[in-house]
Design brief:
Blueprint lengths: L9 H13 L7 E3 L1 H8 L5 E4 L2 E5 L6 E6 L4 H4 L7 E5 L2 E2 L5 H8 L6 E7 L7 E7 L1 E4 L3 E9 L5 E9 L6 H14 L4 E5 L8 H8 L8 E7 L4 E5 L11 E5 L6 H11 L3 E5 L7 E7 L5 E10 L15 E2 L2 H13 L10 H4 L2 H19 L1
Helix pairs in contact: 2-4, 5-6, 6-7, 8-10
């Protein structure tokens, strides 16, 4: 680059390369600086210093949008929501900036602050400025609970609820421990919540899928630009549990979340409830350059086991959390109300999509009994 162009710095070289790569029309093919690449790798071990935002480029608009906020984080406390658009960071516009570069600007030492301008996802014309403190943030990928439930038959049962918020290095092991603990407590069905899970390590998503599936099922397919398809399959898989499963997804479920949801759905293991997913199914080759920078190049994309395109399409659930479905679920819940339910799960029971998921589990149980 130095020989071809009169470049005075590495930053100038990165800018020139970014301009060249932008002509490919793929916002995910990009070069990032050593500092940005180091930041990209932060978080896979479950720790970071920042404001608690997961962000990504919305492919159709090129805007930086919020995929999710970590519960209790500075961003969440400030009222930033999934779907909001980041407009500025510390007074600088974000036009043309990729998600890693933006995330790097949001990160920083705990005790410092960063000022952001955010466009509300509902009130499109509403832009507000928020000053966020940076803090030490622990990314706990798994949380779980038992939801006591009464079936239409009058029988009491336990539903195991597992929330998976990110696919870090510990996600698969944490998921395995959560399932085994719930099994030991005698649950009869499961709800796996992938809402606002922006993805992460795809291998972790495939490892989690194998905990729910048996045999040699196809987990996902890859297809390159020449149309060559390669299935990724299990080898002699053994599920930890065969109990009925509902997976909840939404617009913030992306990448590895979509791969996991597609694997469980297309193999007949789970019913999908919620809203259409984000639609990020690109496969990238990452080349670390000699100066510590990295080149990300899109080389293929993912298709679900049933060959449904994920990228820029997303996954449509079997059942959306519509008012009609919610009314049915609420009626069932009212009839089967259990006054001894613990307060610790009351917020889960008031969640509309979880109510719909429980209703679907009821239907599955009644069908199973009838047969």
């Amino acid at each position: 680059m130095v020989e071809m162009f009169p470049l005075n710095s590495a930053d100038a070289a990165y800018t020139k390369i970014r301009g060249m790569l932008s002509t490919l029309g793929d916002p995910f093919t990009r070069i990032i600086s050593p500092k940005e690449y180091q930041g990209f790798r932060i978080g896979s071990d479950g720790n970071l210093q920042g404001v608690g935002l997961f962000i990504n480029i919305e492919p159709r608009t090129g805007h930086l949008v919020v995929l999710s906020c970590i519960e209790g984080s500075p961003a969440a406390r400030a009222g930033i929501h999934q779907g909001d658009e980041l407009v500025e960071i510390n007074g600088e516009r974000l036009d043309g900036l990729d998600s890693e570069a933006a995330a790097q600007r949001l990160r920083g030492n705990a005790g410092t602050t960063v000022t952001v301008k955010v466009k509300d996802s509902v009130k499109k014309s509403s832009i507000r400025e928020v000053k966020l403190p940076r803090e030490n943030i622990k990314l706990s990928p798994i949380s779980s609970a038992i939801i006591p439930h009464r079936l239409p038959t009058g029988q009491f049962t336990k539903t195991g609820y597992v929330k998976l918020s990110a696919f870090s290095q510990t996600a698969a092991e944490d998921m395995k421990n959560a399932i085994q603990e719930l099994e030991n407590q005698g649950v009869h069905s499961y709800i796996l919540d992938l809402r606002n899970n922006p993805g992460g390590l795809v291998k972790a998503g495939l490892d989690v899928a194998q905990m729910w599936l048996d045999g040699d099922e196809t987990l996902v397919n890859t297809i390159d630009r020449n149309g060559n398809m390669l299935p990724i399959t299990m080898v002699d898989g053994h599920a930890i549990t065969h109990d009925p499963l509902v997976v909840i997804v939404n617009e913030g479920s992306a990448s590895a979340s979509e791969i996991l949801a597609g694997a469980l759905h297309d193999n007949g293991r789970a019913i999908l409830v919620g809203h259409k997913t984000f639609g990020k199914g690109k496969i990238q080759s990452v080349t670390e350059l000699h100066d510590g920078s990295a080149l990300f190049v899109t080389v293929a994309k993912y298709l679900s086991p049933a060959l449904h395109d994920i990228d820029q399409v997303g996954i449509t659930p079997d059942i959306q959390c519509t008012t009609e479905m919610l009314n049915s679920a609420m009626e069932a819940s009212a009839k089967n109300n259990n006054s001894n339910k613990k307060n610790s799960v009351s917020s889960l029971e008031a969640d509309s999509c979880i109510m719909v998921a429980e209703h679907e589990l009821d239907m599955k149980e009644s069908k199973g009994t009838a047969s």
